[in-house]
Amino acid sequence: MDQDGALGEVRASGLRGRGGAAFPAGVKWGFLAGNPDPNKYILCNCEEGDPGAFNDRGIMESDPATVIEGITIAGYACRANRGYIFIRHGHSQPIDRTRAIIEQAYELGLLGQNILGTDFSFDMEVALTGDSYVSGEETALMEAIEGKRSMPRFRPPFPAQVGLFGKPSNINNVKTLAYVPEIIARGGEWFAGIGINGSSGTAILCLTGAITYPGMVEVPLGMTLRQVLFDMAGGVPNGKQMKLLQTGGPLGGVLSASDTNLDLVLDFDVFRNAGAILGSGGIIIADEDTCAVDLTRNLIAFCQYESCGKCFPCRMGMSHLLEILERISNLQGTEEDLTLMRSIGENMQAGSLCGHGQLGFNPVSSALRYFGDEFEAHIREKRHTGYCPEQVFSPRLTRR
Ligand SMILES: Cc1cc2nc3c(=O)[nH]c(=O)nc-3n(C[C@H](O)[C@H](O)[C@H](O)COP(=O)(O)O)c2cc1C
Ligand code: SF4
């Protein structure tokens, strides 16, 4: 298959990025393929800092060869000459296994100069993150590979024009690239035939929290949440009721486990419309004992701790949100606090440099949408609505 043919199959597959934004991979590859620069990079994002997500790591531990093949195909289709796999510092098993497979691929002539006797040459190496959530953001990741402090860059220019080391670059999530070898082998149409509407292929989900069978599952997009959480994962243990779901990582959303939401189908657009995102596939399940306000406080504590501090709407906005949520959790919130949070959230969304600040209000807005009555109970009736620990757990106390 020639390079345009490979790109055409990925386009035809309808494959959308699994790193969070669900952007069509074929379209993104097309930006890079069209750039005539002789030095271009393919980056694979295995930073995976979302609490509750471990599918990228699972893939890199169990089948790094498939991902390496996917990156090499991306390099071929985009006429790039070097790939980087960016893995979270400290995830030693994926790091060691990936490095070992890259070495074997060089020995077998599957990487390096003139791969399989063709005129296509492609090199690959592993680069490590600095144990920071924001280093998973695509431009912060490039800064980290370049050996700098990993903070997001201003855009434009976009990575397809000016990326790693100032060269045109394409970045995809591990899962996105892991689908590629099979798409090329079976054809884009085969992949497009799995799934629903504009969401083709499968969802690789990580189920954690109050669930009978936690772990990683791969299911066709289009299944309902109810089928996954009850039929496959056995529902909530110990006879408790399912209360809420936290999906798509800390920048995702908080969904109530209502009948309507449990009937939602796994589809990028359906989830976004419900106020959550499918994101990287993490679903944290909470039972009736969980307090929606406390959970929201916890999510914002994570986001505040991880804000890189480069721009003030996020740096200050996250701190203000956390202060207010701690106040509400301690039953000291006021009526104005809800309006104040919305105003801070709007400013963060409009003024932040990267997705961390732009999406950082999502946990609060979605929690208010589904559990507004619990916020009001804390503020008006000075009443807890679940387990609100006196000891306030936050990443400041629990990490490092
Ligand atoms: C704060 C922040 C953290 C992110 N962390 C990750 C991550 O750990 N893994 C990932 O694939 N994408 C992450 N992303 C999204 C990336 O910026 C980028 O969109 C993604 O790697 C593109 O891959 P895809 O097109 O295959 O989805 C993050 C974005 C933000 C704003
Ligand atoms: S939005 Fe937050 S994480 Fe992103 S650059 Fe600004 S301060 Fe850093």
From TrEMBL:
Q: Which residues form the NADH-ubiquinone oxidoreductase 51kDa subunit iron-sulphur binding domain?
A: 293-338
Coiled coil ranges (UniProt) are none
UniProt-recorded name of the protein? NADP-reducing hydrogenase subunit HndC
The record's InterPro entries line, in alphabetical order, gives: NADH-UbQ_OxRdtase_51kDa_CS, Nuo51_FMN-bd, Nuo51_FMN-bd_sf, Nuop51_4Fe4S-bd, Nuop51_4Fe4S-bd_sf, Soluble_ligand-bd
Query: In which family does this protein belong, per the annotation?
Result: Belongs to the complex I 51 kDa subunit family.
Task: Specify whether Membrane is a keyword of the entry.
Answer: no
| Species whose genome carries this gene | Geodia barretti
Task: Extract the signal peptide range.
Answer: none
SUPFAM superfamilies on file? Nqo1 FMN-binding domain-like, Nqo1 middle domain-like, Nqo1C-terminal domain-like
Q: Where are the transmembrane segments?
A: none
Q: Which UniProt keywords apply?
A: 4Fe-4S, Iron, Iron-sulfur, Metal-binding
A single MF term (Gene Ontology): 4 iron, 4 sulfur cluster binding
